[in-house]
Amino acid sequence: MKYSFSFFTIVVLSSISFLSAQKKNYLTRKGDSICDNSKNIVFCKAIDFYRSQQYDSCYAYSNRALMMTNDKEEKDFFHCIHGYSAYTKGLYKKALLSFNSISNSDNYALIKNYLLGNVHLSLKSYDKAVNNYKYWIANNKDTNNVIKKAVLRNLGLSYIHLRDYETARDYFDKELSLINSNDTVAIIDAKTYLANVYYNQYLDEDAIPLFKEVYELSKSFNNVELKHNASLNMAVVERNRKDYQQSVAYYREHIKWKDSLFNRDKIWELTEKDKQFAVAQKESEIAIQDEKLKTQKVVQKALIFGASGLLIFLAFLGFFYKKLQKKNSLITQQKEDLAIANKTKNYLFSVVSHDLRSPMNTIKHQHLQLKKHIENNNIEGIREANNSAITVTESTSHLLNNVLHWSLEQNNQMVFEQKEYPFKPIIEHVLYDYENLIEANDVEIKTNYLKNSLIKADRESLKIVLRNLLDNAVKYMNGKGAITIEMGVDSEDFAYVSIQDTGIGISKEKLERINSLKDVSIDKINRSEGVGLGLILCQTLVKKNQGVLSFDSEEGKGTKVTIQLPRSEA
Predict the structure, then answer these.
(1) Membrane-spanning residues where (predicted)?
(2) 455 bridge partner residues
(3) CA quadruple 18, 24, 25, 29: dihedral, nearest 10
(4) Residue 485 is inside which H or E element, if any?
(5) N or C end: fewer C-beta atoms under 10 angstroms in the chain?
């Protein structure tokens, strides 16, 4: 279960928080009083070891103290610290015996029930844990919210294990209401448990937004465990939604979160080494082929001069000539392939080095702004900086995805399988993933589904195209605006989806270049003409799906992009 690890952490920490608080009141005063009055070395050492959190020694000396006293109040005190020392060492059954031996006096009733609740929770006796915690809540008059939040959380955990999710949710809601808005760690923990409650009830619409909120909060907080747990939960959620590509991304972040996703120098160094290795390998192959050709020429001359007859000479000459032609053709083809590969790699390196520079600087600036707003406790500034950072991060992430997808497509490693799918769910799934980006950019989405139909396409490559087109629509929006998604049927053979925005539009000259991309490969593209990798990837994938991608735009009034795909009914 997703909450098992967090459950253990909360029980231990809440216990420590509780007894740490006690050091300032009754237990501290009682320990000092026993030591001062008895002058017993064993008693005083047990108390000193407890105070300094040396629980191994405290466990041994408090056990000796219990055998040396018959005083009821002293026994209650030493049973308390003896049980707690056993609890910290994981000796839950011994801790249970010690805590049950404490009397029900007013001084120890709340402490006893709280500690018994923690032990029962660790022993998975959830009904008993609930009874102890409810006694504490019913009789507690202290206003210490730290202890109260711990009790509410442990009650929620107990009810999760008892599969009473509604009650568990109530206690987590109560805990959340006590948390200070500046306590990011506590908010993340509480919302994680709430998300797990919804998720275990299969209420994904309530659970997934909470998981996403926790994930976004954890990214801005310097806590290793929070980042690991948040990214792992998102990986599990995406895996269960069968979005394996996104799930793998979150798993990678979970494992390697310490590494910078935008360490451009390392990316450049590794890719440059790959390029040099590939070029050296190809050059070595060409050199070998050249040497072979030279050898063949020597052999050919030797056969010409050593031929005993014209027919034999002509036969051998024809044979070697054809072989030479074949090898020359192979070398020529290899040189052409190498030139295209080098130009493609140079193009991709240009995209990475050029297009990442601006967002990296923007993200750095946003982090500085965010730090400044946090120091000034400027919530509105934090929200604006966070929204801006989300936009830049999403855009950069899609740029990197385009590089990955293009590399996979060029190496024929992209899984491509055309099947029959309803058109509408594919579009809605992509739009769902864009809710945060749309909200951050203050853009309105309108949908007009005229007629749903079955299409024959590769679903994942179609999603890549839709994401790129939505990215461009948001990117080139002039401030606030709207994006209209329309889906319908062109004819018996084709269905279509159009994405129309109210952005800055495209000039007539640039529009002609974009619409002429249908039969242009990357090795013939001049990037200075304003044609990006995303549009080339879109044209390639739509064409591979036997569809048509067209653009219609007027500068200053927006752009309309239409995808036509074959219908399966046809």
Answers:
(1) 302-321
(2) 421, 567
(3) 120
(4) strand 481-489
(5) N
pLDDT of residue 530: 46
CATH number for 46: 1.25.40.10
Query: Which tokens belong to 456?
Result: 């024959």
Distance between CA atoms of residues 536 and 522, nearest Å? 7
**Residue 469 falls in which region: left (phi positive, over 0), alpha (psi -120 to 50) or beta:** alpha
> Is the pLDDT reported for residue 436 higher than 90?
no
Burial class (CB in 10 A: 0-12, 13-18, 19+), 239: middle
Report pLDDT digits (tens) over 234-259.
Answer: 778 878 877 778 777 777 776 765 44
Q: Which two tokens stand for residue 266?
A: 């390392």
For the chain, helix, strand, coil in percent to 5 are 70, 10, 20
Q: How many residues does the chain have?
A: 570
Which range of residues forms the domain containing residue 74? 1-138
With respect to residue 144, please indicate whether it lies within any of the assigned structural domains: no
And the tokens for 458? 């590769």
Buried b (16+ CB within 10 A) or exposed e, 260-280: eeeeeeebeeebeeebeeeee
Boundary of a domain, candidates 138, 160, 193? 138
